[in-house]
Write a structure and sequence with these properties.
This protein is of the alpha/beta class and 597 residues long. It is 46% helix and 13% strand. The chain has a 7-stranded parallel sheet with strand order 3-4-2-5-6-1-7, sandwiched between helices. It has a 6-stranded parallel sheet with strand order 8-13-12-9-11-10, with helices on both faces. It has a two-stranded antiparallel sheet with strand order 14-17. A hairpin with a 7-residue loop joins strand 15 and strand 16. Helix 17 (392-407) crosses helix 18 and helix 17 crosses helix 21 (478-484). The longest helix is centred in the C-terminal third of the chain and has 28 residues, at 569-596.
Length: 597
């Protein structure tokens, strides 16, 4: 925030729910002029503007859901200086009329405080949710060189960060990278089979709270949402094939707690900032580790415990391969080889995550360039550890193969290394003369799957590095030589089918019980009533965490209520009396009961 106030370009990478919106909203309020926020999703714009206006901050959005008269009125308000934050899609901002006429007028009076590029990963072909329009935003730097640009994203690998810097033409930016670790989230991978639907149904019934189920196809979304409804679960579909009005109604029902479960396609961003999502299930494989981190990260944004479960089956690989093959040039009908190469590389990373026996949190954080020492205590591989076995000899054989090839100035990926170790006889191997290597055929005692498991684990443990250019080849590092010289052992958990939760065993700690659960539920009902009367989601009134603290502390006066986290002066004035009345009524009932006893 300090750099934003100083008028410096900023690139901030912060995890979902980490408060990145506050980092540009607060400077916008404190500075003169209007801050223009580029956002890719209508739902995201509406949600942020709703929260800002509920706190008395002048904000507005302009998108295709508005009439011409509404758009003109909002532009007029911005030109008069009556709007501190104006949210727009990149397509709107780059329209010739907006870029050539309206923006220069805003820059002159009341002035443009900053351009904020939210979800900045959309600028990179290496990130998820790539939006070509984002690459044109560098025009803003050319036309308004003195206006700072602030780029924010919740997911960005080092490669994507560099792409953002270049594509947005950020000048000597302050770069802030927060930890991606979300310790309140529990990660698990389970086998997809005929029991999967029953498990999802039982999860919705027993876990309680709001949940999201991601599916790969619209057809599966509709089928799964329908089955859940037939089995008594309040569930609605959400995908791009629905009528815009129906999609909007379903989203509103979810954020207003009128439905418990949203079943959505992973190919369509929801943009829902609902803090009290208690679980996210991926029925199908996500496209990339970045998209999985973001989609699963919609759970537990209020910092309370939440579960993230990924179902994985062999059929998912075939489906993913089919979709990758559909990446063709619409004019020439030729394969888009670069896009297919990138997609296959990203698919391998997702498969490595799903099939790994290593700490899932460590794998995710390593992907984003952050180190983490297991066990995390918050994933299936750490809470249900499998027996470790010594694979040092096999690791030395694998590393020796890399070293022998490096001496010949050759580098290959895991699949080819395994072919050499198992004594393959393919023509390419013969043509390259690799049958003469001393490591040729020394690994026949292990199956291909076992060698793949070892190769993945060596990468996850940092013993082998992989290039990230779409053609991943194995490279030795300092840790590799420690293993080769016998100074470090390699222990592997035996690969098995994902363990299912045993009956009666909790995978993640449940919410800490409040001293008065009945009071908490009464406060939630009051919150829902007030939210419906005001036309806002319940969490805009108070978060669950605030209600739990009220139920625990049982404040009797406005002063006691004001010290509870999440109760500012505006909300105290607006809602305080009603919530205090509920608390007083509850404590009076308790006193009467105690006296009667």
């Amino acid at each position: 925030m300090r750099d934003a106030l100083a008028g410096r370009d900023v690139l901030a990478i912060m995890p979902t729910g980490g408060g990145k919106s506050l980092c540009f909203q607060l400077p916008a309020i404190l500075q003169s002029g209007v801050t223009l926020v580029v956002s890719p999703l209508i739902a995201l714009m509406q949600d942020q503007v709703r929260q800002l206006t509920s706190n008395g901050i002048s904000a507005a959005y302009i998108n295709s859901s508005l009439s011409y008269a509404e758009i003109s009125a909002r532009i007029g308000a911005a030109l008069r200086g009556d709007c501190k934050l104006l949210y727009l899609a990149p397509e709107r901002l780059l329209q010739p009329e907006f870029l050539g006429s309206i923006l220069p007028r805003l820059a002159e009076n009341p002035g443009i405080a900053a351009f904020v590029i939210d979800e900045a990963h959309c600028v990179s072909e290496w990130g998820h949710d790539f939006r070509p329009e984002y690459r044109q935003l560098a025009q803003l730097r050319t036309q308004f060189p003195s206006v700072p640009a602030l780029a924010f994203t919740a997911t960005a690998t080092p490669r994507v960060r560099n792409d953002i810097l270049q594509q947005l033409a950020l000048r000597d930016p302050a770069i802030h990278v927060a930890s991606f670790n979300r310790p309140n989230l529990y990660y698990a991978v389970r086998d997809k089979d005929r029991r999967t639907y029953t498990e999802i149904l039982n999860h919705a019934r027993n876990a309680g709270g709001a949940g999201i189920v991601y599916c790969l196809s619209r057809k599966r979304v509709d089928e799964l949402a329908g089955r859940l409804r037939d089995d008594g679960i309040r569930a609605l579909p959400y995908h791009a094939g629905l009528d815009a009005n129906e999609r909007s109604r379903n989203q509103e029902a979810f954020i207003r707690d009128d439905t418990q479960v949203i079943v959505a396609t992973i190919a369509f961003g929801m943009g829902i900032n609902k803090p009290d999502v208690r679980w996210v299930i991926h029925h199908d494989l996500p496209r990339t580790l970045e998209s999985y981190y973001q989609e699963s990260g919609r759970a537990g944004r209020d910092s309370d415990p939440a579960q993230c479960i990924l179902y994985f089956g062999a059929g998912d690989i075939r489906t993913a391969d089919f979709l990758i093959e559909q990446k063709i040039d619409p004019i020439t009908n030729e394969p888009l080889e670069d896009e297919q190469r990138i997609a296959r590389h990203q698919l391998r990373q997702v498969l490595n995550y799903a099939q790994s026996t290593e700490c899932r949190r460590a794998i995710q954080l390593q992907y984003f360039g952050e180190s983490f020492t297991p066990p995390c205590g918050g994933c299936d591989n750490c809470t249900q550890p499998r027996e470790l076995k010594d694979w040092t000899v096999e690791a030395q054989q694998y590393l020796s193969c890399i070293a022998r090839l490096a001496q010949r100035r050759e580098r290959f990926g895991a699949a080819y290394l395994i072919e050499i170790l198992r004594g393959g006889e393919s023509q390419r191997l013969i043509d390259r003369g690799h049958q003469s290597l001393s490591v040729y055929g020394i690994g026949k005692q292990r199956s291909v799957d076992e060698w793949r498991h070892l190769a993945r684990t060596l990468v996850h443990q940092g013993i082998v590095e992989e290039t990230q250019d779409g053609y991943p080849v194995a490279v030795l590092n300092k840790q590799s030589w420690e293993v080769l010289r016998g100074g470090r052992k390699v222990l592997l958990a035996e690969p098995t089918r994902a363990k299912r939760q045993k009956k009666g065993k909790k995978e993640i700690p449940a919410h800490s019980l409040t001293p008065d659960d009945a009071l908490f539920e009464t406060l939630r009902r009051l919150r829902k009533q007030l939210a419906d009367e005001s036309g806002v989601p319940p969490y805009v009134i108070f978060h669950d965490a605030t209600l739990r603290e009220i139920a625990a502390r049982k404040p009797r006066s406005p002063t006691e209520l004001s010290v509870i986290s999440g109760v500012g002066q505006r909300k105290l004035d607006r809602y305080g009396a009603q919530f205090l009345a509920i608390v007083r009524e509850s404590t009076s009932s308790e006193a009467d009961t105690a006296e009667a006893e």
